[in-house]
Amino acid sequence: MADNTRALMEELLAEMEERRKRILAGGGPERVKKQHESGKMTARERINYLLDEGSFVELQPFAEHPESELMRGVHAPADGVVTGYGQINGRLVFVFSQDFTVLGGSLGKTHGQKIARLMDMAAKVGAPIIGLNDSAGARIQEGVDSLSGYGEVFYRNAIYSGVVPQISAILGPCAGGAVYSPAITDFVLMSKGISYMFITGPEVIKSVTREEVSFEELGGSAVHTTKSGVAHLECEGDQGVLDTIKKLLTYLPQNARETPPPRPTQDPKSRKTPELLELVHPDPRRPYSMHQIIQTIVDDGEFLELQPNFAKNILIGFAHLGGQSVGIVANNPRFMAGALDINASDKAARFIRTCDSFNIPILTLVDVTGFLPGVAQEHQGIIRHGAKMLYAYAEATVPKITLITRKSYGGAYLAMNSRDMGADVVLAWPTGAVAVMGAEGAANIIYRKEIQSSPDPVATRQAKIAEYKKAFDNPYVAASRGYIDDVIDPSETRYLLIRHFAMLAHKQEERPYKKHGNIPL
């Protein structure tokens, strides 16, 4: 009897392994070969490269599509998406990887349900969700069921936003409704020359507007990292994207209830930064490298900049200070003199809210002339977009330190996290200047009559500019009013920032009860 039971069990196990073997083969050797020839890994190869060796545990590998009339007899291993969990550098993560070798990675009802269930589990246990997107879009054969599948995913993208980090890798096509899921997530990374995102493809655009455009020109990685701002980074191939995801995770916590893990460093907390004394010229018209400022201050000079080629007038990204993760927002005086425009405001506001969602302290480096003037900016809504920055900083309860490196004028002074907007500590270098506007503009307004009636208007104007600079265009007036906590020696910058952030580590800040705020989107 025992021998008979064992034989039956072995038969069942053999059937299970045969089924699993077919699933692991994906769309078959020919489609796998085509995937490789196009410069892409397969769905499972991507997971194996991303996760710690041997850590992946697959969920629902035997899931199949419902047999609708148009899908009857169609074999779709794992329904075109591999889902499961594993570890990256010993930390738990949940991953879904769309399999382009199976029906072009198209999303049907079961495909969407698998991703949704994975997201539910990630939210329950509090671990990041990583989506490896490579899909032709909705599975047309399943009709409205495929739209329902997308709806289940989009809903969870929104509900779990700010609960656990959500990272999207675009590693091939991502078209139609498929683009909205990545757009809701916290970070979007694209593979250069291989991936693209758009709502309507070149053929539809040609038929409707008569515009002719290629896939790359319409929605390639260059477009979304320079023009649209949809993607945060473009990387070289699958490996470049997956390596960057690993690096990105080192700055993030597991979930909104935790803080980012500390990072060991040999860079002394008390390290002086005398190099900064030569970087910033007191003349506000002389540009300098804000990147160099950041790299000098942070641990080991490592700064992971996000959206580096979009809205270059402002810099955002992650670094470590004394081993602790920080988000950095900084004006870039080398581009548009660091002025804030529509795109820069959107870029900064979204990043500020991301940092606040995941308990990442924010360092703001200020050298700003103001909001960019112009009819186009006004008509396109600079008021509404600029208000997003004000809202984001005011809303954020994480530790916030502001350092004024040079000028900080007008409404942009407030938008770059002044004391009144909720900064916990405000510092300035001796080169800093806080005023309603620059000395030249202020002198033209305040002393207009004196200048016009003077026998030598040019000399009088220069004298009045110098008078205004001495009286107001410096950090000491703001410091005397309590708007600046200290004017510091630039060589002490790193040491003092680390001390201030350490002091703020257990900051608690309560806000009035609300369902949620109403940011001016």
Defining key terms:
8-stranded mixed sheet; 521 residues; alpha/beta; 17 strands; 3 domains; 7-stranded mixed sheet; 2-enoyl-CoA Hydratase, Chain A, domain 1
Give an overview of the whole structure.
This protein is an alpha/beta fold. The protein folds into three domains: 23-249, 2-enoyl-CoA Hydratase, Chain A, domain 1, CATH 3.90.226.10; 276-437 and 473-503, Alpha-Beta Complex (2-enoyl-CoA Hydratase, Chain A, domain 1); 439-472, no CATH class. It is 40% helix and 17% strand. It has helices spanning 2-24, 29-37, 43-50, 109-125, 144-159, 180-184, 202-209, 215-219, 221-226, 237-249, 276-279, 290-297, 342-357, 375-379, 382-395, 410-415, 439-446, 448-453, 457-471, 476-480, 493-503; strands spanning 57-59, 81-88, 91-98, 129-133, 166-170, 173-175, 187-191, 196-198, 233-235, 304-306, 314-321, 324-331, 362-368, 400-409, 425-428, 433-435, 486-487. Strands 10, 11, 12, 13, 14, 15, 16 and 17 form an eight-stranded mixed beta sheet that branches. β4, α5 and β5 (166-170) form a beta-alpha-beta unit. The protein is elongated. 46% of the residues are buried. The model has no long low-confidence stretch (mean pLDDT 91).
Quick gist of this model?
The protein has helices at 2-24, 29-37, 43-50, 109-125, 144-159, 180-184, 202-209, 215-219, 221-226, 237-249, 276-279, 290-297, 342-357, 375-379, 382-395, 410-415, 439-446, 448-453, 457-471, 476-480, 493-503; strands at 57-59, 81-88, 91-98, 129-133, 166-170, 173-175, 187-191, 196-198, 233-235, 304-306, 314-321, 324-331, 362-368, 400-409, 425-428, 433-435, 486-487. With 521 residues, the protein is of the alpha/beta class.
